[in-house]
């Protein structure tokens, strides 16, 4: 694999699953792709925790918006404070007896501090969450919002990604495995870039459920594992 500056470009996902965090930690620069259309009823503003030993979906509500609104356009809902209080109550019911409950709760409160302005931007909230993760897990990655870079001039998705990677001086583009059907190595080679996909190793840890439930929100991991344990798993992946 080509050596040099590694870059990832991903839509913001609040409280994502662990492979997303691994991607954040695996690169030198992580570009928050907030210039593309917000996916309503997708996973950007929702995820799952274990409640009463079963997966429970929680939602971070956002304001009504035009269908073509980008992530940078999206604002948190006017009732966000009430919704966050409900989320914290769910986390308490779910994890109050877990070994690192206080760590998980503190992480949520750092992402949405008391009195968070109800019209705060979705992208800003994600960036605040990412910075909290950086501090907790000692991650050195630079975090940049695509909306702060040069305006988009490329229509094709792959061309736009290549342009973003070049803007931050990248040599290698690393993507989540779910994006494999979207990109061709030849397109990146033609632009003197390398393309790789991140494959996470299986990761099983102690939960409140009787049988392990994979791919839950990072909140579940923070409630059940120490920061040191989580850090030890950050590099457990392969790039192909």
List the defining traits of the structure above.
single chain, 240 residues, alpha/beta, six-stranded mixed beta sheet, two-stranded antiparallel ribbon, 8 helices, 8 strands, 17% strand, globular
In short:
This protein has 240 residues and is of the alpha/beta class.
Please provide a written account of the structure.
This protein is an alpha/beta fold and 240 residues long. It has one domain (6-239). Helix content is 34%, strand content 17%. It has eight helices and eight strands, in the order E-H-E-E-E-H-H-H-E-H-E-H-E-H-H-E. The protein has helices spanning 18-26, 80-95, 101-111, 122-137, 157-167, 185-189, 218-224, 227-233; strands spanning 6-10, 29-32, 46-51, 54-59, 142-145, 172-176, 194-200, 237-239. The strands form two sheets. It has a six-stranded mixed sheet, sandwiched between helices. Strands 3-4 form a two-stranded antiparallel ribbon. A hairpin with a 2-residue loop joins strand 3 and strand 4. Helix 2 runs antiparallel to helix 3 (101-111) and helix 3 packs antiparallel against helix 7. The radius of gyration is 18 Å and the shape is globular.
Summarize the helices and strands and which ones pair or pack:
Blueprint: E1 6-10, H1 18-26, E2 29-32, E3 46-51, E4 54-59, H2 80-95, H3 101-111, H4 122-137, E5 142-145, H5 157-167, E6 172-176, H6 185-189, E7 194-200, H7 218-224, H8 227-233, E8 237-239
Parallel strand pairs: 1-2, 1-6, 2-5, 6-7
Antiparallel strand pairs: 3-4, 7-8
